Amino acid sequence: MPQKLHFVASDAPEAQAALQKLREHYGDAGDSAEIIVALGGDGFMLQTLHGFLGRQVPIYGMNFGSVGFLMNAFREDNLTTRLEAAEPAQIHPLKMNATSGTGEREALAFNEVSLLRETRQTAKLRISLDGKVRLDELVCDGILVSTPAGSTAYNLSSHGPILPIDSALLAITPLSPFRPRRWRGALLPHDAKIRFDILEPKKRPVSAVADNIEVRDVHRVDIAEDRKLSMTMLFDAGHSLDERILAEQFLY
């Protein structure tokens, strides 16, 4: 049965050229689409997930970026057949509530929430889980809280653990920890309520970033998974997100 498709693309010239060809070949159903086809890189996929949040429409990506971990290979032909055989992966975002001197701001992250030092001074953070202080003081360049979908991105580059997509876990990974030097992070249940208090925020300012939303000069950041929100991504048969995450652990 033919699917109703809506195509979106990044600003890259190659993606824009492909957008026109695919629309000519398959048409474009606009707001009545049953599947969104996103042309771009991983960053554009995150942008698309945010843009269509709440629409309950699955998203199938084709790669025009540098890595394309969240994307499928681009091919113009047989798209309908590929979509019929595609394997779904459901993901949930993190909700960040960042408090600064100017108030509070909420944002969602499908990959990770990161806290990063703003100046040459290291950050000093206190970490609490479910209302209990677990680490009185962490001196570091920053810290990440990653979803399973985001565990192979910035988290992996920072030597954090790779999480299976259906695991009910979050990864918390420090960036260049200085004290305690040997602390390498933790695996948390997905329903953990995480709080970071920034110590000496004027001397050691910290920014908080949820995917592409940044809040500067934060004093406190609360993070929790939002299970009420979900998005479905589609991957070619045999190349599911589960398979990619598993294969990533055997690269050398």
Description:
- The model has no long low-confidence stretch (mean pLDDT 92).
- 40% of the residues are buried.
- The strands form three sheets. A six-stranded antiparallel sheet has the order 6-5-16-13-8-9, with no helix packed on it.
- The chain has helices at residues 13-26, 42-51, 79-85, 154-157, 241-248; strands at residues 5-9, 35-40, 59-63, 87-91, 94-100, 103-109, 112-117, 123-129, 132-140, 142-146, 169-175, 186-189, 194-199, 206-210, 213-215, 218-225, 231-235.
- By secondary structure, the chain is α+β, with helices and mostly antiparallel strands.
- It is elongated, with a radius of gyration of 19 Å.
- It folds into two domains: 5-91 and 230-248, 3-Layer(aba) Sandwich (Rossmann fold), CATH 3.40.50; 94-225, Tumour Suppressor Smad4, CATH 2.60.200.
Characterize this entry briefly:
By secondary structure, the protein is α+β, with helices and mostly antiparallel strands. The chain is built from five helices and 17 strands.
